[in-house]
Amino acid sequence: MIFKGVGEGRPYPAHGYGPGDWGAVAPRQVRLADLVTTKRTLDLDALLDEHSTFYGDLFAHVVQWQGTLYLEDGLHRALRTALHGRPTLHARVLDLDAAAADEGGRSPR
Length: 109
Hints:
By secondary structure, the chain is an alpha/beta fold.
């Protein structure tokens, strides 16, 4: 199994982060085996396109919620990483657990 789990949808609260906001989250390495996807399907053309990240963020977007890491954006990058035999992916990780604790239980933004 490549991922910890395959999900459908986002089980965590809306965080309000848009494409410009993610740039402020520093990337770090995340193990593929620790991720739960938020999509069950992918576009094979996008997976095989060598320029698929040309217009987007180079890093996957991951949300930590209730101790679980959810792959919000970057499924294609994660699968390409797995196909190359690498166990880790560079991702921007938005920690909603820490944000909720800092804000007294409210979701960020």
